[in-house]
Amino acid sequence: MSNAQGHIVSVKGLKKTYDSVEAVKGIDFSVSKDELFGLIGPDGAGKTTIFRILTTLMFPTEGSANIMDLNVVSDYKKIRNHLGYMPQRFSLYQDLTVEENLEFFARIFGTTIEENYSLIKDIYVQIEPFKTRKAGKLSGGMKQKLALSCALIHSPEILILDEPTTGVDAVSRKEFWEMLIRLKEKGITILVSTPYMDEANLCGRVALIQNGEIMSIDTPQKIIENFGRKLWAIKSDNIYQLIQDLKTDNRIHTVFPFGEYLHITVKPGYDDLKGLAPELNRMGHSGVKIQEIEANIEDCFMELMQ
Amino acid sequence: MKRFIGFVKKEFHHIFRDPRTMLILFGMPIAQILIFGYVVSNEINDVKIGVYDKSKDHITKEITNKITASGFFILSDNLDSDKEIEDAFKKGIIREVIVFEQNFAQKLEREGSASIQIIADASDANTANIVANYTESIINSYMREELWAEGLTYQINPEVRMLYNDELKGVYMFVPGTMALILMLVSAMMTSISIAREKEMGTMEVLLVSPLKPLPIVIGKVIPYMVLSFINAIIIIALSFFVFEMPIQGSLIFLLTETLLFIFMALSLGILISTASNSQMVAMFISMFALMLPTMLLSGFIFPIENMPKLLQWVSAIMPAKYFITIIKNIMIKGSGIGVIWKETLIIAGMTLFFLMMSVKKFKVRLE
After folding, report:
1. C-alpha angle with apex B72: B68 to B78, nearest 5 degrees?
2. Is residue A2 part of a domain?
């Protein structure tokens, strides 16, 4: 089912142009069986376009994409049997009940709810109490659980989820990822995209993507290890002034706001920041706190964007 | 097959759960046919009539009394010459003139039969028809109850003449016209909207990434509307038959078959529209402007095609409704069979085939 390297998805030189806009600028990546692969990037990075090409919904302008050695252009009919796809927008029938939606998707894939119940059980039990409720009346988190159940009902080998956690509350997001990890353990290859950097750590491997280009592909740990710089978190009582002051300081390489802190990196040779706090105090800042921290994925992303 | 049944089932759920769809599907046709029927009302009250009694004998007086006593008519003019009839109508007050021939009673007694002429102002075709029918039935009941009861087997022959519109076009036009309009609207608009909705709501995206092929998707969409449109057609025919007494001279089966063909044509057109529209709004506007208005205005439903400028006559030649109206009128009123209307049938069948082929060609298995 997979090619010689064990890749279940392989993308080579993929380009997609809309009119004059290059949405995807020639990317390569591959995903192995049973992997949980994340496409991490901000809105407009090209994630949805990539997924739509992989799900055979769009033609690539250039390059090729294969799923289980089937070409997304020429073998689209065969590929569609193996895919479970959850588009970015909630795409179920709002006027059908939870149960009817599930039953419908089971039917059109030529299966029944009972046949694959074990696969969706964990997820479905959470929404089962509401099975006679119309899908349009569910909360955001429940909609996503139902959509996932529907995408899984035919026991697909590959699951492609386009920003499944966007617009979902923190608790439901966490639950949702736990489900994905459990599905991965059941042998389903999962491709997921998200604009939330913190979710990258939950993936086996991630591709950081920006403006239609992949900046880095690796495990989240490796990406963090490759950050290669020291990173400090800094704050003061006047955070806006602090940004201005640090940006004009020629020792400082980057400054990014990060919650109540600023994350900063320095130019080579200025690794010692002991003197910075007193200096800032002299400039009129109060409550200055500086501490060295470990980089996270978002720091890496920001660094790569430079 | 199970997939397909599942799809059709889902489609019925959509229709039955949406009050607006249900209203358009069943409320509108019934309302339209009733409005069209009753605006040209068939209840008459205090209709002013004139009587031109050339005989002035006891029987003509009895009949005149009988008519004015019925409550439906008020005698407004007693006329004395043929010329006055025309003038009386022109004034627009009276709707009917009853003319008794000379020596009415004498003729009746001697020859056993005499004639009454009923002249109605048919510029309002429906009312004229009703007024004439009422008058006729009063005369008939007089004949039965008063004359035959006394053992006199006299025959009074009412001769109805319609002034200004002797074909009574209005009456028989509205049923075929409304039927064409409603079936066109329900079938084409509803199908195109329902396919466009899948695109708009993003569910098409999921359907495409399923093993379901385009043809079952389209047919699954169409079948519920086909069934419902057919039920609609039957309701319309039943209403026009029972409520408005539209005759069905020809074969009912043949009528329904032709109707089914027209529904099928409208559905294919609906599919074609949906392939060109990505939202329900667009689908609705195309259906409204490309289908509803031309169907109403150019099919001969409201304005006679013969009176149109040449250019519009050509445009009306591509209106499927035009052919359907001809077919319906021929079957219902004249009782024609396929021999008379094979050309129209063939044209509609050809259009269906054309729309279907275009739709299949244009249906996208992808998002772009």
Report:
1. 40
2. no
Q: Which residues of A touch B6 (CB under 8 A)?
A: 103-104, 107-108
Is there a single domain that holds both residue B227 and residue B94? no
Would an 8 Å CB–CB cutoff place A144 in contact with chain B? no
What CA–CA distance (Å, rounded) separates B238 from B232? 10
pLDDT score for A48 = 94
pLDDT of residue A97: 95
- Are B56 and B187 in the same domain? no
- What ipTM did this prediction achieve? 0.82
> How many Å apart are CA A64 and CA A29, to the nearest integer?
11
Q: What's residue B269's pLDDT?
A: 92
Q: Contact at 8 Å (CB) between B283 and B191?
A: no
Mutate which: B200, B204, B209, vs A, most A CBs within 10 A: B209
Cβ–Cβ gap A94/B201 under 8 Å: yes
Distance CA A74, CA A70 (A): 8
SS3 category, B308: coil
pLDDT at B362: 86
- Classify residue B368: in a domain, yes or no: no
Partners of residue B207 in chain A, C-beta under 8 Å: 108
Q: What is the pLDDT of residues B174-192, one digit of tens each?
A: 778 888 888 888 888 889 9
Question: Which residue ranges in chain A fall short of pLDDT 50?
Answer: 1-2
- The domain tally of chain A equals 2
Name the residue facing A58 among B6, B13, B368 (closest C-beta).
B368
Output the pLDDT for position B265.
Answer: 94
Residues of chain B with pLDDT under 70: 37, 39-44, 123-126, 162-173, 304, 307
Residue B54: CB atoms within 10 A of its CB come to: 16
Could you tell me the CATH number of the domain that includes residue B123?
A: 3.40.1710.10
Query: What residues in B contact A108, CB-CB < 8 Å?
Result: 3, 6-7, 207, 210-212
Distance from CA of A55 to the nearest CA of B (A): 7
Which residue in B291, B292, B271, B273 sits closest to B282, CA to CA?
B273
The predicted pLDDT at position A271 comes to 81
Residues A159 and A209 in one domain: yes
- Smallest CA–CA distance, residue B16 to chain A, in Å, is 10
Determine, yes or no, domain membership for A273. Answer: yes
Q: What pLDDT is stored for residue B218 in this prediction?
A: 85
Residue B13 to residue A100, Cβ atoms within 8 A = yes
CB contact under 8 A, B203 and A92: yes
Does residue A1 sit within a domain? no
pTM of this prediction exceeds 0.80: no
Residue B5 with chain A: CB contacts under 8 Å? 107
> Into how many domains does chain B fold?
2
Strands A158-162 and A83-86: parallel
Domain of B7, in residue numbers: 2-39+169-362
Instruction: State the pLDDT at residue A2.
Output: 45
Query: Which tokens is B275 given?
Result: 């392939």
Residue contact B206–A95, C-beta within 8 A: no
* CATH number, domain with residue A139: 3.40.50.300
